[in-house]
Amino acid sequence: MNLVEGIFVKPFQDMFGAPDFLIQVLWEGLVAGVLYALIALGFVLIYKSSRIFNFAQGIMVVFAALTLVGLYEKGVPALLALPLTLVVMFLLAVAIERVVLRPLVNQPDIILFMATIGITLFLIGFGEIIFGGENKVMITEQLFIPTGSFTFEPFGGFVSIEQKDLTAVVGAVLLVAGLILFLNKSKMGRAIRALGDDHQAALSVGISLSTIWVLVWFIAGVIALATGIVWGARAGVSFALEVIAFKALPVLMLGGLESVPGAIIGGLAIGILEKLFEIYWGQPLLGGNTETWFAFVFALIVLLFRPQGLFGEKIIERV
Amino acid sequence: MLYRTAGQFKTSYEADHALFPVKQDAWLLGFILVLAFVVFPMTANEFAFKALLTPVLIYALAALGLNILTGYAGQLSLGTGAFMGVGAYACYKLLTIFPELNILIAIGLSGFFSAAVGVAFGLPSLRIKGFYLAIATLAAQFFLVWLFEKWAWLYNYNASGAIQVPTIEMFGVAVAGPNARAIVQYYFVLCVVALVTCFAINITRGRIGRIWKSVRDMDIAAELVGINLMKAKLSAFAVSSYIVGISGALFVFLWRGAAEPNLFDIPLSFRVLFIAIIGGLGSILGNYLGAILIVALPVIIGTLPATFGIPISSSMAEHLNTMIIGGLIIMFLIVEPHGLARFWEIIREKLIMWPFPH
């Protein structure tokens, strides 16, 4: 009986007993969810346009953040380091397209997937040699990101919202809005979507595959940089960050591998749910640290009912 | 000239179905077995056993298990490390509960635990396909490693949270634990690996193997010709996880000697996946070639700069190692996406033609 009460009664009592704490938990979950959504977005863009399951997205986040901080430490002013990092990410996109993707066109999915794991290992080794493995501090102040925190007191309680988290959420919303505008209104954006719909048809109307691939990997790099700045401001910049890439995978499963809205909604849902589960069920009942697997198991259960994810394209199989 | 198939006539179905339809293949295998059983043990030192020979065999066995699932039955799995962990912890608990149990039997039994877990996590494969399934197997990976950490019963409520292999004797000779000699462990592993490989070769070329291959190539078509998909996929998960579980038990008991939960984390899964893919999916030989490459590479990179007199710090060597392995994976995928085993096929065809290519 104790267990049943612990699962079905106690958590809800806790939630409504301390609504200010609940709001705090929800806010933390939302911020984490925004970051998961951003990483998942990088995955989705690449998957949509080239059917490559890009495992390297997580390491691109770390690499972008390290480049930014590393350049600043070398004495480059922060506002110059930002565009320079974008140039580095562009060069990385060109290099990946030239060296890795072009020779592997038309190979089975699993080979391309393995190649992105190869890229991941290469970037880890390369990054550690150049920037060193120790934890670095993200240059938040130099980039004019406010660091204070708002506090307010609903229901006689106490909720604190960090300004950099707020900046992160606003920045992410702007980035996603810009991206959706770009995909829907600009010529290049339409070309990306055309490539996603049908490779051969897109090629036959004169869309250049290699240009679009470079572009898509560059956009993924920009998203990675944004994610890296935001996450780095919260937790410091080091290779431990790459584990957040794994967090984006259940988001993709939940939202569907080729759906942009799916990545956003899935990210937010997983961010909030895993926080709630960890605080109200995981810590009292299971000994904590459930965040490592909760998202995967949750996504797996959803997938049993919808094998293509919540928003993915319906899988039609023909013999 | 040396390797020719002409003149070897088959006069019965049995001869046609034989394991080695070409005589030279049997000789070659015999030669390799002599190398493995006689020549290497006589020439190798303690370091070579610990750093090269035993890990190659164990990794090859794990890759063989994964290859049955991914290469033969077409179900991509990223949870190999965790299944190895299940085998290792099952073996540990079996030997704690029944200390008199022969270690060979304990290892054989521990495979059944990982097979059961594998089937449980393989159930979603009936509905989920491709990359969705790959991510679903990651659920097993993260959940199981978390369980190894939190379920104190698994490591006997040890304060360190790690499992330590006690000294285990078999027929009066220490085979596992701190007192065991490397050569004994090598022979033990070699015998198990040879046995399992023999089983794997025969199961993959028989009826079940052909069912798996048809499911891999197109599962709907396989279903239409009357193959029970559920049986086919779950049997692949069971056999694969069994082999992976055994390799996990060997990994801890005959090689590492101790294990923490994070040993079975995602890098181990990926290492085994690299071996299977670089070696060649859908090939038994490939697992060995891939394992030799992946195990030997760090050793070579570690010793090469010193022999040329270039000073290099150990952390630098480690980073270089990661970088070079990443680069090599990409290079191998570009040069030969079908893996190292394909090279052997090409060489074999050339040999049959040689020296008159037309």
TrEMBL record, chain B:
Keywords: Cell membrane, Membrane, Transmembrane, Transmembrane helix
Residue runs in coiled coils: none
One function term, GO molecular function aspect: branched-chain amino acid transmembrane transporter activity
Keyword Transmembrane helix attached: yes
Native species: Allomesorhizobium camelthorni
InterPro entries, per database record: ABC_transp_permease, LivM-like
Membrane topology: Multi-pass membrane protein
Keyword ATP-binding: no
One Gene Ontology CC term in the entry: plasma membrane
Transmembrane regions: 26-43, 49-69, 101-123, 130-148, 184-203, 234-256, 268-285, 292-312, 324-344
Cell compartments where the protein resides: Cell membrane
High-level lineage: Bacteria, Pseudomonadati, Pseudomonadota, Alphaproteobacteria, Hyphomicrobiales
Name the UniProt record assigns to this protein: Branched-chain amino acid ABC transporter permease
